[in-house]
Amino acid sequence: MLNKIIKFSLNNRIVVLIGALLLIIAGTYTAVNMEVDVFPDLNAPTVVVMTEAKGMAPEEVERLVTFPVETAVNGATDVRRVRSSSTTGFSIVWVEFNWGTDIYRARQIVSEKLAVLGNALPSNVGKPTLGPQSSILGELLIIGLTSDSVSLQDLRTMADWTIRPRLLSTGGVAQVTVLGGDIKEYQILLDPGKMKHYGIGLNEVIDVVKDMNQNAAGGVLYEFGNEFIVRGVLSTNKVEALRKAVIKNVDEVPITLENIAEVKTGAKAPKMGLASERGKAGILLTVTKQPNTSTLDLTGKLDKSLEDLQKVLPKDVKVTTDIFRQSRFINNSIDNVQKSLYEGGIFVIIVLLLFLMNIRTTVISLITIPLSVIVAILTLKALGLTINTMSLGGIAIAIGSLVDDAIVDVENVFKRLRENRQKTKEEQKNVLTVVFEASKEVRMPILNSTLIIVASFVPLFFLSGMEGRMLAPLGITFVISLFASTVVALTLTPVLCSYLLNKPKNNGEEHDPYLVRKLKSGYGMALRWTLCHKKVVLGAIGAILIVSLVMMASFGGGKEAASDTGTGASVAGMAASAKEAVAALTALGYTNMEASRAVKKVEITENMSVEDILKASLKHLSFL
User: Fold this and answer.
1) Taking the CA atoms of the chain, what radius of gyration do you get in angstroms?
2) Interhelix angle for 492-500 vs 13-33, to 10°?
3) pLDDT tens per residue, range 412-443
4) CB atoms closer than 10 angstroms to residue 116
5) Residue 33: CB partners within 8 Å, gap ≥ 6?
6) Which DSSP letter does residue 249 get?
7) Alpha-carbon gap, residue 147 to 314, rounded angstroms
8) Which residues contact 430 (CB under 8 A, 6 or more apart)?
9) Cα–Cα distances in Å, from 125 out to 51, 64, 67, 283?
10) Which of 183, 309, 400, 490 shows a CA-CA span of 20 to 30 A to 435?
């Protein structure tokens, strides 16, 4: 089989070269347009169900709200775990699905299960709603708004009604949370003395103001063959118009709202949350993304939207986008790995030049690296994975091994061609025949070495949970790139050898390089000494083995080490739990800043669940 592959390649050299060129073009295009992220997708498909239960104690919420919701979703398809948290007036249920479940299908399943609840919940309990779709590392961007002349109330209004809707309309955005500033509200400050004077009760005022700012339909008027739509235009944002609302008539004199109350705009009290940007009071907007969304692409879209918004905002309003950018973290992480790849490639080139002392053989061997990397990237694309630190890490680990197969083949072909040239013209064989026979000699060692290395990485694919999701891309890129290098060594390498090594460049190529000759001489002396002192060598090796086993037994166990950028798999898991706790506290009415402060005060460990973090955070909030 392998002989047929080599022979086919040598008989169709142009086809092989064109195929390699097309592979490089397709792989380069795919790599440029692929999604880039820090880590693989560590987010098990999770649907959050939130239910408001005003006035209920935690025990009542647990018994009357949380339990029915849990019961409804427990038997859903592909659900592997259901967690919940009940607090005063609020219930949160996390429905976690099996890895690989489509998140949209999961949300549809939960929605159908909640629909069968019917009248199982008390009448004063709100309808269960699904939380926004987000991911573990979903916090994408934090935007700051500051101004010297615009008030915090106006800044907050701009953030709530201009910037937030625009950002939410961007595809891939899950949620935009606004923090800080003064929330504008229309305030009616009643004067009890005036109300008593006019004989007006509170219920009369409430009945009037409840719907006073809504337009009213007046039906349709048909006259003179025309159709006229009649409507009462009452909606307004002007305080002067709101003051003219009629409460009732006293002695045929209309009593308006301004006769019994002060109507004005003001800041919502109590003030929930503060925000600042570089020590200056302002507004913060936190943007989170949906799962399976390219962070870099979405960040670019948001930057474009913010540039357009800046044109319509007052000139004094400063929009800051460099407070937190996940794209910056991604670029730094990817740049670190790429730097390692470049450095590794440079060292490979240096070693090849030192040992081969031939530019042509070095080039033939190095061609394997980009082709193998491109095949690995195309495989990631086909599997729906992303380019991240783990997948690039697999390539970085394999970069030294990628040229092994090609070096073995090139070196043997080079040697056989040199021997063939040293024969008489009658004994010399055709170049293609020499290349085929030389490649055939090393085909099994090449394949066996690849299989042995691949076998050491197979256990990675048997890991489950977050560890498996974290390390699988590393194993995939390593194994695929290694197999690709073997295929290249059996196809493209012999073809390039037949073109580039068919004639000697000078007489210096007809013998081994100086460094190789010296190493061979030293190795020969070491080998002879070893064969003459077998017991000493075996005894030393046995002692080293025993010492290594003792040291290995004394090592402690642990999770993955943190990366250079300060994040590992366990850290990502704890960050995810903390983020869910912050989201739950925000849903309970606390500001994002209050929730974040409370969660930060909790000493989070790897074994803590979201419910544990939430309960500990609520204890801290009770003292705020």
Assistant:
1) 36
2) 120
3) 888 888 888 877 777 878 888 888 888 888 88
4) 8
5) none
6) E
7) 9
8) none
9) 7, 9, 13, 33
10) 400
- Report the sign of the C-alpha dihedral through residues 475, 476, 479, 481, in that order: negative
Amino acid at 326: Q
Which helix H or strand E contains 31, and what residues bound it?
helix 13-33
- The H-or-E segment that residue 450 falls in is helix 431-455
Taking the C-alpha atoms of residue 509 and residue 358, their distance in angstroms, rounded to an integer, is 8
427-435: long-range pairs with CB below 8 Å, 24+: 431/498, 431/502, 432/10, 432/498, 435/10, 435/494, 435/497, 435/498
Distance of CA 387 to the CA centre of its chain: 10
Q: How far apart are CA 598 and CA 592, in angstroms?
A: 10
Both tokens of residue 515? 């460094």
SS3 57: coil
Residue 275 CA: distances (Å) to CA of 278, 279, 284, 286? 10, 9, 6, 12
Residue 203 reports pLDDT greater than 80:
yes
Q: Which amino acid is at 339?
A: K
Residue type, 546: I
> Using an 8 Å Cβ cutoff, are 395 and 477 in contact?
yes
Token look-up 């409460």 returns: 247
Task: With beta carbons less than 8 A apart as the criterion, state whether 36 and 392 touch.
Answer: no
Cα gap 318→427, rounded to integer Å: 83
276 forms beta bridges with 281
Other beta carbons less than 10 A from residue 373's beta carbon: 24
Nearest CA among 279, 281, 242, 288 for reference residue 156: 281
CB 582 within 8 A of CB 618: no
- Contacting residues for 370 by C-beta, under 8 A, at least 6 apart: 24
Percent above pLDDT 70 for the chain? 89
More confident: 134 or 109: 109
Residues 300, 297: Cα–Cα separation, whole Å:
5
First CA to last CA distance, the chain? 74
Under 8 Å between Cβ of 107 and 90: no
CA distance 357 to 360: 9
Q: Which of 168-182, 378-392, 543-557 has the highest mean pLDDT?
A: 168-182
* Start-end of H helices in 313-430: 326-356, 359-366, 368-382, 389-402, 404-421
Please say whether the beta carbons of 502 and 416 come within 8 A: no
Supply 312's token pair: 């319509």
pLDDT at 588: 57
Judge contact between 376 and 477, C-beta under 8 A: yes
- DSSP class of residue 289 equals E
In the chain, the amino acid numbered 107 is: R
Q: Using one digit for the tens of pLDDT, what is the confidence trace for 184-202?
A: 998 999 999 999 988 899 9
- How far is residue 614 from each of residues 2, 122, 133, 197, 583, measured CA to CA in Å? 61, 25, 20, 51, 10
